[in-house]
Amino acid sequence: MKLIGMVLVVLFCSSCGLMGAASLRRREGHLKKVQLFLHLLQERLSYTLSPLGEIFDGLRDEPLLRELDFISLCAGKLAGATPFPRAFVESLDESRCALDQRDRELLGELSSILGQSDLENQLRGIRLVRANMLQQAEAAEEVCRSRAKLYSSLGVLSGVAVAVVLL
To answer: Pfam families of this UniProt entry (predicted)?
Structure first.
């Protein structure tokens, strides 16, 4: 009975470590998808000159962007006649993406850029947000590289340590 308890403790701690590592990888992946989102947004804004509602509606259907739920949330709010700045900020707040607070703040800057000035200034603003998000993605990649294995190892080792103490 005691052996089963120790095995369960090791498994629990190991799974906690693996979940921590998966969380780091998920954020890194979402930041890469945000880069794609910003690229596609920039392209569609400059080449189609469509209203933001149509652009977000089209981006919602992009298979590579499905994990970025703030896009579909924003498209829905825009279809309901919510002004873009409010719709975008609310969508970021409601999103379940693995973005941290700083990522959301940087991305939220789009709310004060898009639809507020001429095309060139909007594109310039997207490039600035994109550059800032690229820095976030590079930092997340470094954190993932250095900490993912650490989290996994610490999970297993802490489980083994607790099992030894229980002996």
So the answer is: Spore_III_AB (PF09548)
